[in-house]
Amino acid sequence: MSGTNYLDPAALARLQNMELRARTIVDGLFSGQHKSRFRGASAEFADHREYSPGDETRHINWKVFARTDRLFLKQYDADTNLHVHLLLDASASMGCGGDGLTKLQYASYIAAALAYVAISQADAAGLIVFDEGVRSRIAPAATRAHLSTLLQQLDDVRAQGRTNVSETLHALASQIRRRGIVVVLSDLYGNAELTLRSLAHFRHHGHDVAVWHILDQIELDLAFRGPVLFRDVETGEDLAADADVLRDSYRAELATFMRTYQQGCRDKFIDYVSVDTRTPVEQALTSFLQRRLSAAR
User: To the nearest whole number, what is the mean pLDDT of the chain?
Assistant: First the structure.
């Protein structure tokens, strides 16, 4: 077992940059764990996608550029056998965090590690950051330069704004046409039934879907005492309540909320991961990848 196995969140936060964090998280993980039934093996032309900074210019379709004045890359099955679409919720609620990592930091480290694994295996990774709409988008690619661009975006992302998970995911399900693995990283706040329908929309289009439901210890335990003024970080609304009186009913509602996602994802053949920010990042990632490998056999 390497010295970074089960890396704790506090240690991860002390590392200098996202690429180093990604390397550290995946150190010692075996390859091939994220493989999908959608892999191809031929060198035939598959599709076009828009050029992103860092892509190799030798794949630009100059005939298309002459007609449209826009840069598109030719893609071949053998060049990008699998697309991994990382969908990161960066709304204000994702900024919640106790003594360790915020939910957004935790989600970003998972996204960085998955991108690192994918591109290291010559597959393509892309990143979409969203709140109540798409904030930024990096199209999937498989180059090392592209990985650096993606990791820099993760370094720069900040938690802000409101969120509308269900509508945003519905829109993205209509836009992401080439099927692959869709990984959603979010606290999933909002109407659970509507969000489950939007996740099913990805499945309808043939995607392999994995959902990381990320919560913080503060949200799970509600370990405050006595009168507390709660503030909704997305709306700014305040609620005064006695935490001791509220705690039992709050925990029951949260448990129901999480069971709804767990059961709904199971029914729709969606991979569901419930994790809190106290869980060592590499431990969560290793468990996720090993389970997917076992399921694929």
Answer: 81
Model pTM greater than 0.85? no
Residue 291, both tokens: 């389970």
| Cross-strand pairs, 209 | 182
CA distance 174 to 172: 5
Report CA 140 to chain centroid distance, whole Å: 14
Length of the chain: 297
Say if CB 130 and CB 104 are below 8 A apart. no
Closest CA to 7 of 128, 106, 133, 95: 106
Compute the distance between CA of residue 107 and CA of residue 115 in angstroms, rounded to an integer: 12
In sequence order, what are the residues at sequence separation of 6 or more whose Cβ sits closer than 8 angstroms to the Cβ of residue 194?
Answer: 166
Residue showing tokens 């996202």: 18
- Tell me the C-alpha distance between 63 and 247, whole Å: 63
Sheet holding 181-186, edge to edge: 134-141, 124-130, 83-89, 181-186, 208-215, 271-276
* Cβ 26 vs Cβ 116: under 8 Å: yes
Residue 93 pLDDT exceeds 60? yes
Q: Which residue has the higher pLDDT, 232 or 262?
A: 262
Q: Give the chain's domains with CATH numbers.
A: 9-35+82-291 (3.40.50.410), 40-80 (no CATH)
**How many of the other CB atoms lie within 10 Å of CB of 41?**
8
